[in-house]
UniProtKB/TrEMBL annotation:
Principal subcellular localisation of the protein: membrane
Entry annotated with the keyword Transport: yes
Protein name, entry field: Clathrin/coatomer adaptor adaptin-like N-terminal domain-containing protein
Family matches, as PANTHER family: ADAPTOR COMPLEX SUBUNIT BETA FAMILY MEMBER
Lineage: Eukaryota, Viridiplantae, Streptophyta, Embryophyta, Tracheophyta
Length: 485
C-alpha cells in the first residue's frame, strides 16, 4: 500500500512539473540536443533559428563550450527579426572576446545597427563592438562610443559609459584625452542611470582628473540620491575626494579633532629619527605635527590606500600630500554643505554599503555637533545579515575608538546574542570596552556574568573585564558579583 502511494505521489509530482513548464523554455535545459542545432541555424524560418539560439544559450548557461557554432551564428546578425537579433547579440557578447577575428567579419553589420531606429539594437551593437578586444577596431569603437554618448536613448548612453573602461583596458594612449572628454559628457547627463555608469567609468579610467568633477559638482550632488545604489557608493567616494582635493579637511570634523588630540608616533623607516607629537598642548611644535598628520590623511584619501601605503617612508608620505595648511569650514564652505545635505537621506538607504559610505562622508566632513545623525542608521544595520553586521561593526569599532561617547548610551545594542558568530561576539566585546561609562559599567558586567558560561568567549570576556577594571577601577570595585567574573 505504501509503495503504491509513493509511486502515485512521484507521478503527481512529475505531472505538476510538466504543467508548470508549459509555455516556457525550461525543456531546453533538460534535453539540450546539440545535433539538431546546426540545421536549425541555417533554416529560412526565424522561429527555428530562435529555437537553435535558445538551445545554444541554454548550453552556455550550463557551462558548455559552443564556440564552434560561431560562424553560423554570426551570419544571422543581419536578420530582420528583433528576437533573432537579440539572441545573436547575447551569444556574440559571450564569445566576442574569445573569437575576435571571426567577430570582425560582422563589424559592418554592427556599425549599421548603430543607426537602427530601435535603441535596443543600437545598444546591443555597441556592447558587442566594445567586447571585441582588438586594437585594430579600437578607433571604430571609440567613434561609436562618442556617438552613443549623445544618443537620445538613456539606455544607449548608459551602455556607452559601460564601454569606456573596456576601451581603456586596451591602453590607447593616443585616445586617452578623447575617452576622458566622453566621460565628462556622460557625467553631465540628466539621467541618474547614466551618471552612475559614468561615475564607475571615471573611477576606472581617470580617477585623478578631478577637473571633470568640478564642472558638474553641484549637479552631481543633486543627482546623487536618484542614482542606483551601487553607483551611489562610487559617486560618494568621488565627490568626497574632490572636496578634500579642492578645500582640504574640515577643521571642525570629529575625525580630524580626534586624531589631532591624541599622541602619535611616526617612525622614519631606515633612520633612527622618530617623530612624536608632544603631549604639551602649548608647544608650538604640535602645530607642525598636526599639519603633517592632516597632510598624511589627505594623501591617503586622494591617492587611495594601496598607492599611499606603498610609499617607502614617513617623510615621503608627508611630502606627497597636499598643502597641509589647507583647511576648510563646514559652516562656510558651500561644497561641503551640499555634499552633507545630499548624503543625509542616504543614511537610511536599504543598501548597507550606501549607508556606510554616507556615514564616512559625515565622519570626515560634518561638524562635531552634527555627527550624531550617523548613530541610529548604523545601529539599524545591526539587524541585517551576519556578513553585513560584521562589516558594520568593524566601522563602528573605528568610530568608538575615536569618539566613544557617540555610542555610549546605546551600549545594550552591543550585548552578545547566542546566535552571533564568534568574530561578531569578539567585535561587540571590543566595542563595549571602548564605550563603557560610569553609568553603564554595572549593566555591562551583569551581562558578562550571564555570557561567561559560554566557553568560546570566556577568555575574551576575561580580557575585556580586565581592561574595564583598569579604565574604571573606582566604579568596578563596587560592582556586586564581579569576583565571579
Amino acid at each position: 500500500m505504501f509503495t503504491q502511494f509513493g509511486a502515485t505521489a512521484e507521478t503527481l509530482s512529475k505531472a505538476s512539473t510538466i504543467v508548470f513548464r508549459i509555455g516556457t523554455d525550461a525543456h531546453l535545459y533538460d534535453d539540450p540536443d546539440v545535433v539538431s542545432i546546426a540545421p536549425l541555424l541555417d533554416s529560412k524560418f526565424d522561429s527555428e533559428i530562435c529555437e537553435a539560439l535558445k538551445r545554444l544559450l541554454a548550453l552556455i548557461a550550463q557551462g558548455f563550450d559552443v564556440s564552434n557554432f560561431f560562424p553560423q551564428v554570426v551570419k544571422n546578425v543581419a536578420s530582420q527579426s528583433l528576437e533573432v537579433k537579440k539572441l545573436v547579440y547575447l551569444y556574440l557578447l559571450h564569445y566576442a572576446e574569445k573569437r575576435p577575428n571571426e567577430a570582425l567579419l560582422s563589424i559592418n553589420y554592427f556599425q549599421k545597427d548603430l543607426g537602427d531606429f530601435n535603441p535596443l539594437v543600437r545598444a546591443w551593437a555597441l556592447r558587442t563592438m566594445a567586447g571585441i578586444r582588438l586594437h585594430v577596431i579600437a578607433p571604430l569603437v571609440l567613434l561609436a562610443v562618442g556617438k552613443c554618448a549623445r544618443d537620445p536613448s538613456v539606455y544607449v548612453r548608459k551602455c556607452a559609459a559601460n564601454a569606456l573602461p573596456k576601451l581603456h583596458d586596451l591602453r590607447l594612449e593616443e585616445s586617452t584625452t578623447t575617452i576622458e572628454e566622453t566621460i565628462g559628457v556622460l557625467l553631465s547627463d540628466k539621467s541618474p542611470g547614466v551618471v552612475g555608469a559614468a561615475a564607475a567609468a571615471f573611477a576606472s579610467v581617470c580617477p585623478n582628473n578631478l577637473s571633470l568633477i568640478g564642472r558638474n559638482y553641484k549637479r552631481l550632488c543633486e543627482t546623487l540620491p536618484d542614482v542606483e545604489e551601487w553607483g551611489q557608493i562610487i559617486l560618494i567616494g568621488i565627490l568626497l575626494r574632490y572636496v578634500i582635493a579642492r578645500h582640504g579637511l574640515v577643521k571642525e570634523s570629529i575625525m580630524l579633532s580626534s586624531w589631532s588630540s591624541e599622541s602619535y608616533n611616526f617612525e622614519n623607516e631606515g633612520s633612527d629619527t622618530s617623530f612624536a607629537r608632544k603631549e604639551n598642548a602649548d608647544d608650538p611644535d604640535n602645530g607642525i605635527y598636526d599639519s603633517e598628520l592632516a597632510s598624511m590623511i589627505s594623501s591617503s584619501y586622494l591617492e587611495g590606500p594601496d598607492k599611499y601605503l606603498s610609499r617607502s617612508s614617513y617623510a615621503e608620505r608627508v611630502t606627497s600630500g597636499m598643502d597641509s595648511s589647507c583647511y576648510t569650514s563646514a559652516k562656510s564652505n558651500d561644497d561641503v554643505k551640499i555634499l552633507l545635505q545630499c548624503t543625509s537621506p542616504l543614511l537610511w538607504s536599504h543598501n548597507s554599503a550606501v549607508v556606510l559610505a554616507a556615514a564616512g562622508v559625515h565622519w570626515i566632513m560634518a561638524p562635531k555637533e552634527d555627527i550624531n545623525k550617523i548613530v541610529k542608521p548604523l545601529l539599524f544595520l545591526l539587524r541585517s545579515s551576519n556578513s553585513s553586521k560584521y562589516v558594520v561593526l568593524c566601522n563602528i569599532q573605528v568610530f568608538t575608538k575615536a569618539a566613544p561617547s557617540l555610542f555610549s548610551t546605546h551600549f545594550e545594542e552591543f550585548f552578545i546574542s547566542s546566535s552571533d558568530p564568534y568574530r561578531i561576539k569578539a567585535l561587540k566585546l571590543e566595542i563595549l570596552s571602548s564605550i563603557a561609562t560610569d553609568s553603564s559599567i554595572s549593566a555591562i558586567f551583569q551581562e558578562f556574568q550571564v555570557k561567561f558560561r559560554e566557553r568560546s568567549i570566556a577568555d575574551w570576556i576575561t580580557q575585556v573585564s580586565g581592561t574595564l577594571c583598569l579604565q574604571l577601577n573606582k566604579k568596578v570595585l563596587g560592582v556586586p558579583g564581579l569576583g565571579s567574573v
